[in-house]
Structure formats: structure tokens, C-alpha cells
Amino acid sequence: MNGATKILDEMNDRSREVFRLVVESYLNTGDPVGSRTLTRTLSEKVSAATIRNVMQDLEYLGLLNSPHVSAGRIPTQMGLRMFVDGLLEVGDLDASDRQKLDDTLQRNSPDVGGMLDRLGSALSGVTHGASLVLTPKHEAAIRHIEFVSLAHDRALVVIVFSDGHVENRLFTPPMGQTPSSMREAANFLNALIEGKTLTEVRRTIQNEIRQRRREIDDLASQMVESGLAVWEGDGEEADRLIVRGRANLLGGEDDDRELERIRTLFDDLERKRDIADFLQLTEEGEGVRIFIGSENKLFSLSGSSLVVSPYMNSDRKIIGAVGVIGPTRLNYGRIVPIVDYTAQLVGRLLSDRS
């Protein structure tokens, strides 16, 4: 039992109800809640002064905070976490929300990326937040690789997979590359990687290259190393994250501090910072997880919350994740079943395709 849950268990019924009403009102309106407001909604008839005393006790415990002098209270991050863990009532998925998500998958597109892109847009539309979809790694065997020179400081590596999928990645080639050294590097790699997946390539190819480096000249060897850097760098992870609905985070915010937090969040999303952590968060446990404020390793500077769930392939292996990010004032009870259903939907669809 964590400390917050212990505090909740030790509260009397009145304190628990006052706390729950403050949090629920804040999540609905975003406004501080005063004692007079609570006198109209509390199940027992007590004075505003009595409620003020209860709210002061909750503030002393670190569960509520008063943003302005003589104003009402709002929940702290600790308070939100305690509410989510101990008092949150998760509703059923609304039929219209389910239909909107299902409709995005009616088109029988062979392009998984395009399908997940549409689903991300639908998820942001349904939740009115920004959606995040981490697409699965492409695990088909590689058929062919080719380097294409675009300029003296830009080149393209083209990877063709056995299932017809093609990936193009830009990178900066080593100085002095020639068409012949690019061809030599591609031929060398093709002899090693044909029939292997990208994951298998990462595991085995470094050793192969060290053992067989003398088979190619220095320029081609540098080119091979550059191609490996493209696969092993951050580019692939960043490309796997689809972000949709950023504009939803701007709705009606006129507080300068809130706008600054949202700008920070936008910067994080644009840079796709710490994207490897996104999947790591979900791999620590099955099901929907909620990260509030500074608990959220990806966006801790933005005062935001992340509701995220992994999805699995037919072998019950986690291969990606879907999530919704927004202010800490999310409607968690509604968004949790939406994210859960979306993750199950993606998992079923990818399992059927495989």
C-alpha cells in the first residue's frame, strides 16, 4: 500500500467525500472549488465553516492546494494520483466513441502506417487531446538495400523488405563518397543481411563487419558504418511515433503559465524527446497506465498527464503503444476506456494481418 492510499483509507467519510467532490469539480471545470459550492452538493448538511476546516486538513496533507489567497481549492499532483488510484470510477466506452474508432479501420488499407495515422486522428478527435501512437517495428526479412546520393552532404538509404514494404531514410554520408563506393557498400551489406530482419541485423552485423572489413575499401567501409548508424540511431524511433491533435491542447487557455506549459509540450512533441521511454513505460505492466505531471518521464516540464496502453501481437508480445496526452485536468474516467479499447483494436487488427 503506498502512502497516498494509506491516507485515503484513514480519512473519515466526510473528508473523503469533500476530497472527491473537489477533484471531480476541478476535472470538469478547471476552476478552484470553494466551501459554499460544496455545501450544495455534499450528502450531509454541514456549514461552510466546517467544510473549510476539512479542506484545510486536506491541504495540510498535501492533497489540495489554494492557487490564490481566499480562493477555493484545487487538487495537487499527489491528490490527483490518490484520486486516480483510489476513487476514480471508470465508465463504459460510449457507443458513439467506439463507432468513430471502428470507422477508421473500415478501409482495408495494406498500409499499416496509414491506418495507424487515421486511428491517431480519430483518437485525438474523440478525446479532445493529443494522441500518440507508437507504431510497431517492421520485422519482415530484408530483401535489398541501396544507397542513393542526393547531394555531397545528403544520401538516402532505401530498404526493401520481403513483404514489399519500403523504408527510405536520409543521412549524411562520409566525405568523399563516390557512386562506386556506395555500390560496393550496398553489395557488401546485401550479402550479409538478405533474409534477416532489422532486429537480427542489429544483433549480428557488427561482428560480421569487423571480421570481413578487409573485403572492402575504406570509403565503402565508412559508408557501411553510416548505414548502420541510421538504423541504430534515434531516427527510426522518432519516425515510429505518430502525434495528432496538438491543436486540441490550446483550447481556451488564456493563462500565461498554462500557455507556456503547452508551448513546452509542443516542443517536446516536435522533438519527440525520449521516445524510447514511451514504450518502456508501457512494458512495465499490461493495461492502461496513467502518468500525472512529473511522474511522466516524457513531458514532465509541461504539467501534463499521459494515459497510455500497450498493444500486443498474436504472440502476446508488446510491439507498440497508444496514448492520449493533455492537461492534468483530463477526464480520466472517460479517457481510460477509450485508450484501452483503441489498444485492443490495434492489437487485434495487426494479429489478424499477421
How does this structure look, described?
- The protein folds into three domains: 3-86, Arc Repressor Mutant, subunit A (Orthogonal Bundle), CATH 1.10.10; 95-136 and 241-353, 2-Layer Sandwich (Beta-Lactamase); 142-237, Enolase-like, domain 1, CATH 3.30.390.
- Helices cover 50% and strands 17% of the residues.
- It has helices spanning 3-10, 13-29, 35-39, 48-60, 77-86, 95-103, 112-127, 179-193, 198-212, 218-232, 234-239, 256-271, 275-283, 332-353; strands spanning 64-65, 74-75, 130-134, 142-151, 154-161, 166-171, 241-244, 289-292, 304-312, 318-327.
- A five-stranded antiparallel sheet has the order 7-3-10-9-8, with helices on both faces. A three-stranded antiparallel sheet has the order 4-5-6.
- Strand 9 (304-312) and strand 10 form a beta hairpin.
- Helix 6 runs parallel beside helix 14, helix 7 runs antiparallel to helix 14 (332-353) and helix 8 (179-193) crosses helix 10 (218-232).
- The longest helix is centred in the last third of the chain and has 22 residues, at 332-353.
- The two termini are 41 Å apart.
